[in-house]
Amino acid sequence: MLNGTEDEEKWLAEGIAGIQHYAFFMHRALDSNNLREALKYSAQMLSELRTSKLPPHKYYELYMRAFDELKRLELFFKDESKHGVSLVDLYELVQHAGNILPRLYLLCTVGSIYIKSKEAPAKEVLKDLVEMCRGVQHPIRGLFLRSYLAQISRDKLPDIGSEYEGDADTVIDAVEFVLQNFNEMNKLWVRMQHQGPGGVKEKREKERSELQDLVGKNLHVLSQIEGVDLEMYKETVLPRVLEQVVNCKDDLAQYYLMDCIIQVFPDEYHLQTLKTLLSACPQLQPTVDVKTVLSQLMDRLSNYAASSADVLPEFLQVEAFSKLSNAIGKVIEAQVDMPAVGAITLYVSLLTFTLRVHPDRLDYVDLVLGACVKKLSNIPKLEDRRAMKQVVALLSAPLEKYNDIVTALTLSNYPRVMDHLDIGTNKVMAMVIIQSIMKNYSCISTADKVEVLFELIKGLIKDIDDADVDELDEEDFKEEQNSVARLIHTLYNDEPEEMLKIICIVRKHTMAGGPKRLPFTVSSLVFSALRLVRQLQGLEGDIVGEDVHVTPKKIFQLLTQMIDSLSAVPSPELALRLYLQCAEAANGCDLEHVAYEYFTQAFVLYEEEIADSKAQVTAIHLIIGTLQRMNVFGVENRDTLTHKATGYSARLLKKVDQCRAVYACSHLFWVDDQDGIKDGERVLLCLKRALRIANAAQQMANVARGSGGPVTLFVEILNKYLYFFEKGNGQITSSAIEGLIELINTETHCDSTSPDSISDAFLASTLRYIQFQKQKGSVAGEKFESIKLFSI
Amino acid sequence: MVLVLALGDLHIPHRAADLPPKFKSMLVPGKIQHIICTGNLCIKEVQDYLKTLCPDLHITRGEYDEETRYPETKTLTIGQFKLGLCHGHQVIPWGDLDSLAMLQRQLDVDILVTGHTHQFTAYKHEGGVVINPGSATGAYSSITYDVNPSFVLMDIDGLRVVVYVYELIDGEVKVDKIDFKKTTATTHSAH
């Protein structure tokens, strides 16, 4: 192989040297106005181009040298005063050159000047030249020769408005010339495939592709001709070009040229000749990558549609959509072996086109999806990653276009396409859908749409075919489930009946999620349901006559079932919180038994499931806080629950926690609104109990550590005394308060107590509070007056 | 001028999908010096988002927070003010000003920021100021009916703090402001 390249280098060098050698003599002849000599040496120089040894890219280098020299020669030929021969005669003279290739190069050169001089009509000369070039049938040599012809004739075509236009010379002639040159060049190009020794196919195709632009240039020229309007393109240019493309039966040429046509001619032309263009596709060789050609075409047309709204009616007028979808259908049908990714890419291009051109035609969009479903159904199991990516692209396109998931949900084929995705890709797509909803702050408001949506995202909601739940990274899993949880809040309808339907549908789907998913989804759904209860509370008075199917009671039943399912996880702390939320909601609906039941459930969880001491502290505070707000309980029920609460408070592990929980319980016996309980005695009992615990804690600290614990607890209790004192609890006397202050001071100054600036500051600000209250005047001030503060 | 963003009770994802878009577009990184968050975010994504707004982020634990290691209370000094932060479910009765005042005395702070009730409030009492920034997402609350999304921005300048409250009412952001002045500098003299 290496030897081959070395040889080629050598031959090229020899060729270039040859050209330079003869060019030298040619220049001398030109300088001395010696036409004869000039012709002789130029012919010899051009003979170097007769070589068959060079590959295309090296031949090109040789050609370029010759080209430069021919320019000089052209200048000489132009100036009749230098050589004294008329152009007519010169035209004849150069045909005496010995070998055909040099002869034709010279002829073309003279011909160019001939046309320029206007001594002969452009049409005639061009016709003559393009025919004469037939004499060279060697592919590479012929291609470069004709390329030379194309180059020098470029600015001499009888185009509309050009100086070469005449009565007999019209743009038709220009077109004819270019078409003929194109045809001949293509034939030569195709012939390369079959000629020469066996050789390596790849090498040959590589060499051919190096020459492709020589052939394609003709199409460029055609597109630049002013006189080629839509009419001429439609009637003459395209049919003739396609004829050549189809008849040459060469897949390399066909692919390149179809692509060239699409790129080179304006989009409006393509639109108007869509039928012709598309009908050529099935006639191409089966090995041609027609789908890429079609995709290119659709992408161009999509961009054209996007460029301005004015062009859209044109698309409708030519029925672009149906033509394209038919063409695609035919191609996919014909090429049974087409890999899935190819077919789906085609559909992606068509869908992009449809969304740009006919965004309002959801039926078209659905058709495209349907065609894709059909193709996917014929594939037993889609495993190709790239194909999957394309399906995701297909499904994402409508989401991006419409920014509204509800529109996508109305496409009947949308879920069918998703059905063909494997689990992993389904989840990816589901996340895309959810993110689209989040980004657009969409709201899905009907039960049937919710049903469709949850079918679509089922990969996230439950395990399908015992797939790889364990393999999934925990972070990713959390992200997924949090997304589902957030999604639930976008499902809303202010009609209670519809809203309840929505909740039930979501519940139906999420119940199958398994213990890992339930904590995420149950919480969201519970609060969705609680919002509905709140809404019903507001409506309660307004419902007249009509049978109301949606009642808070019904929803509470649902809620209980939902929270109960958390026991399978198990998730006692969460369940406890949710039960308490429901209790408060039941309180608002005046449902005493329901509320009591919820408290029971909460206490059961507390007793049986919550063992962690820190968790217990929080849990008991939540219970106390909720219970404090309940006004629906009768005396008995209330007593039972408060008794339980205080009991558990006193039995927390750490004394500090016990103390705080117990004094919190004091509020259970004093509710500040007008009907609220105000049991001063029991308040005081609680506070005293808290005090005893604080004392015990202090003693324990002394024994265990040798020094007293912080007096903060005492100050906290003092503050509670003051709270109830201020509220008017007669059981709390000013002397009790004074005694407590004295106790704190004693403890603070006790030898065994370590100094604590925090409790000191706390006490100080508490005393300041008392002072402030004294100065308030009116009833409050009088009350506080009775507290004697000694200077500290 | 030091800007402090106070917000909390977002309850994402259990009770809300996201912050309201109008709030999101107002909260841009680089404008705020501190963020104090009362709790109940509830997931790490929300913490990460807040961190992008401002790296100096302080959070206290709400009862639904995924992260159980946030502190129960936090105090910090910004300029001449001592601020205290606590979610508030620990202070019973919930939302009771006098009980919150006790916590304020206990933490020894000028400004106490708590949440839990999802109701914006700003009270001044002799011991200082108690602020509740409400729920930034307008999340459901058993305590407050008809929650409007809200958050608070405090502008601390010397001995003065201007409290701006941003509330989303019927789709429009309404702003209100309250002025508070300290009489003395931070170090308390006992009297």
UniProtKB/TrEMBL annotation, chain A:
Protein's UniProt keywords contain Membrane: yes
Xref: Pfam families: Vps35
Keywords from the named record: Membrane, Protein transport, Transport
Record InterPro entries: ARM-type_fold, Vps35, Vps35_C
Location(s) in or outside the cell: Membrane
Statement: the UniProt record of this protein carries the keyword Nuclease: no
Bilayer topology annotation: Peripheral membrane protein
The protein's role, per its UniProt record: Plays a role in vesicular protein sorting.
The family this protein is said to belong to: Belongs to the VPS35 family.
Protein name listed in UniProt: Vacuolar protein sorting-associated protein 35
Native organism: Hibiscus sabdariffa (roselle)
From TrEMBL, chain B:
Alphabetically ordered keywords of this record: Protein transport, Transport
Signal peptide interval: none
Limits of the Calcineurin-like phosphoesterase domain: 4-157
Pfam families in UniProt: Metallophos_2
Listed GO CC annotations: cytoplasmic vesicle; cytosol; retromer complex
Any one Gene Ontology BP term: retrograde transport, endosome to Golgi
Family per similarity comment: Belongs to the VPS29 family.
Protein name: Vacuolar protein sorting-associated protein 29
